UniProtKB/TrEMBL annotation, chain A:
The keyword Transport applies. The chain crosses the membrane at residues 32-54, 66-87, 93-113, 142-169, 189-210. It is found in: Cell membrane; Membrane. It holds the Pfam family BPD_transp_1. This is ABC transporter permease. Its main location: membrane. It is a multi-pass membrane protein. Residues 28-208 form the ABC transmembrane type-1 domain.
UniProtKB/TrEMBL annotation, chain B:
Residues 2-237 form the ABC transporter domain. The lineage of its organism: Bacteria, Bacillati, Actinomycetota, Actinomycetes, Streptosporangiales. One of its GO terms (molecular function) is ATP binding. This is ATP-binding cassette domain-containing protein. PROSITE patterns: ABC_TRANSPORTER_1 (PS00211), ABC_TRANSPORTER_2 (PS50893). Belongs to the ABC transporter superfamily. The keyword Chloroplast does not apply. The keyword Iron does not apply. InterPro entries: AAA+_ATPase, ABC_transporter-like_ATP-bd, ABC_transporter-like_CS. Keywords: ATP-binding, Nucleotide-binding, Transport. It holds the Pfam family ABC_tran. It comes from the Bacteria.
Length: 224, 352
């Protein structure tokens, strides 16, 4: 973050680990949890749903429509709505983020797997792959770049959207913004933005790394 | 042996792709299915490894109905090659070839070792094993496809227009390679093509199908060309059926003249209009026309006794003299088949 004014560093040092709830470290780990759960759960749910949409073609349009509508809903009213069910807990923030993740990842899974060339699929069948093995060893690997591209969008947007939860008291690092709103003071805002951007960059970097490790053939292709 | 026993395939939309097909693909032979587009070749082929199930009738593999075997297990024992090769883009060439061994549970080392062996066998540099399929030419990919189909040494090989997407020169190479491989391996091969020349070149027996999935004729290539069963087959064989038939007439019986050759550089003599100049090694240097010393015309050659009459005729047409030059395996000239000798042999072929 370069050389900030000394008061910023002092503020960070004083608030990093106060031992009380609301320290920067606490907020950071809350933020991480609230953004990581939607990414992982979103993928875990989008995979079977996406596969179901491929297996039963008619399912895809209605599924996509439902998730698009959910995606279009602004997050704040969604949080408000959920409070009556899940109360003022992180779950209230996590659930809408799971839906957003699914809205991006279901089409990614469907498009990724549909992009597997028919002759490749047919030859896998002819070689004697069982359906499950074909999915795991042929179709998913070939779909991986498209799915990971979706995951990168989901990761960055989840990390950023968690902060909106601050408006209902569950915003991870976003809490630093509401505090500054009540008491105009710059360091919390700078720290909040800085850490959120950093988190997003790290998450994106990890996914790029995962993509490289999981799809070495794509790298070979790019090199030519 | 693969037996089609009154097999019919009706697709859900009512299309009858195969109609009461009765056919045997004999063990150790190449059986070619040939016919116009949409006549049910691919459908027939895919019923053998149960990628498609027949509506009626049965298919037997060495006497056992294929529908008693679990499809994935059945398929691991049947090699399959298709037009676009169907290689896995995400796996290295060597792992593509090792696909079925992996499925059969071989360890990685053994499977890869076998894959390397096969790459060599189909005429590829084993170093290519470390590449990805998109880094190969179409012809090379097709060879990898053949290697992959052979990897677990299945007794049966199904090939669906495997060579039709490559250029004619590469196609000819691949065809020759298949003939060579088959001489070593003796697989039971069912080969689908819509190219009658390919069918005649490769097939021990050729089954001609007509649209609607009906078998029009099944015979060895020579019989097919000499005795087409009906107008459809005759038409399908094409106009140059007569010429193609010569492919099956041996040159062994051709009368050769050995008095038409001179040493290169020597003067023409006598009253022959054409003499064949020979190199010091006894190979054909070219044709010398009487009265024009030093000017050599091209000499068309054929392997005596090994090439067909079609090749001999082709050689004659390539020579300005109109005579074909007979050579042995080392390209040494053994004699000259004159027009007259060719004419006699053709007459014999037509009447005999
Ligand atoms: N899944 C399907 N549903 C309905 N009809 C089909 C299906 N697959 C093939 N057919 C029809 O069955 C007939 C035979 O098709 P098939 O693919 O076996 O022909 P083919 O001889 O392999 O043709 P080509 O030389 O063009 O590959 C065609 O009329 C085709 O339209
Ligand atoms: Mg076909």
């Amino acid at each position: 973050m370069g050389d900030g004014p000394p008061s910023l560093w002092e503020w960070i040092a004083r608030n990093w680990d106060t031992g009380r709830a609301g320290s920067i470290r606490d907020l950071l780990s809350d933020h991480l949890l609230m953004s990581l759960v939607p990414i992982v759960a979103g993928l875990a749910l989008a995979l079977p749903l996406g596969l179901a949409c491929i297996r039963w073609r008619w399912l895809y349009q209605p599924t996509a429509a439902v998730f698009n509508v959910l995606y279009a809903l602004p997050s704040l009213p969604l949080f408000m709505l959920l409070i009556s069910v899940t109360g003022l807990s992180p779950v209230t923030v996590i659930i809408p983020l799971i839906f957003y993740a699914m809205a991006v990842l279901i089409p990614a899974v469907v498009d990724g797997i549909r992009a597997v060339p028919e002759h490749v699929r047919q030859s896998a069948v002819a070689m004697g792959f069982t359906p499950l093995r074909r999915l795991v060893q042929v179709e998913l690997p070939i779909a991986a770049p498209v799915v990971i591209a979706g995951l990168r969008v989901v990761a960055v947007s989840s990390i950023s959207l968690v902060s909106v939860g601050a408006l209902i008291g569950q915003g991870g690092l976003g809490m630093l913004f509401t505090r500054a709103y009540q008491n105009p003071f710059l360091p919390p805002v700078v720290v909040g933005i800085g850490l959120i951007v950093l988190l997003a960059l790290v998450a994106d970097g990890l996914l790029v790394l995962a993509q490289r490790l999981l799809t070495p053939w794509e790298r070979a292709r790019r090199a030519t | 042996m693969i037996t089609f026993d009154a097999v019919t395939k009706r697709y859900p939309d009512g299309t009858v792709a195969v109609d009461r097909l009765g056919l045997e693909a004999r063990t150790g032979e190449i059986t070619v299915l040939v016919g116009p587009s949409g006549c049910g070749k691919t459908t027939s082929l895919r019923m053998i490894n149960r990628m498609i199930d027949p509506s009626e009738g049965r298919i037997l593999l060495d006497g056992a109905p294929v529908d008693t075997v679990d499809p994935p297990v059945l398929r691991r024992g049947i090699g399959y090659v298709i037009q676009q090769a169907g290689l896995f883009p995400h796996r290295k060439v060597v792992d593509n070839v090792a696909t079925v061994p992996y499925l059969l549970g071989w360890n990685r080392k053994r499977a890869r070792g076998r894959a390397m062996e096969l790459l060599e066998r189909v005429g590829l540099d084993p170093a290519m094993g470390e590449r990805y399929p998109f880094q190969l030419s179409g012809g090379q990919q097709q060879r990898v496809g053949v290697a992959r189909a052979l990897a677990a040494d299945p007794p049966v090989l199904l090939m669906d227009e495997p060579f039709s997407a490559v250029d004619p020169v590469v196609r000819t190479n691949l065809q020759d390679e298949l003939i060579r491989l088959q001489a070593e391996l003796n697989k039971t091969i069912v080969f689908v093509t819509h190219d009658i020349d390919e069918a005649i070149k490769l097939g021990d027996r050729v089954a001609v199908l007509r649209v609607g999935g009906k078998l029009a004729q099944v015979a060895d290539p020579k019989t097919l060309l000499t005795e087409p069963a009906d107008d459809f087959v005759r038409e399908f064989l094409g106009r140059d059926r007569g010429i193609r038939r010569l492919q099956f007439v041996s040159t062994g019986g051709l009368r050769l003249r050995t008095d038409l050759t001179v040493r290169e550089g020597a003067d023409g003599r006598g009253d022959e209009p054409w003499l064949l100049a020979l190199t010091a090694e006894g190979r054909a240097a070219g044709w010398l026309a009487r009265g024009r010393p030093g000017e050599l015309g091209p000499a068309g050659t054929f392997r005596h006794g090994r090439d067909s009459m079609r090749a001999a005729l082709d050689a004659a047409l390539l020579s300005p003299s109109g005579h074909a030059v007979a050579v042995d395996e080392q390209d040494k000239v053994v004699g000259v088949a004159t027009r007259q000798a060719l004419d006699e042999a053709l007459t014999e072929a037509v009447h005999g």
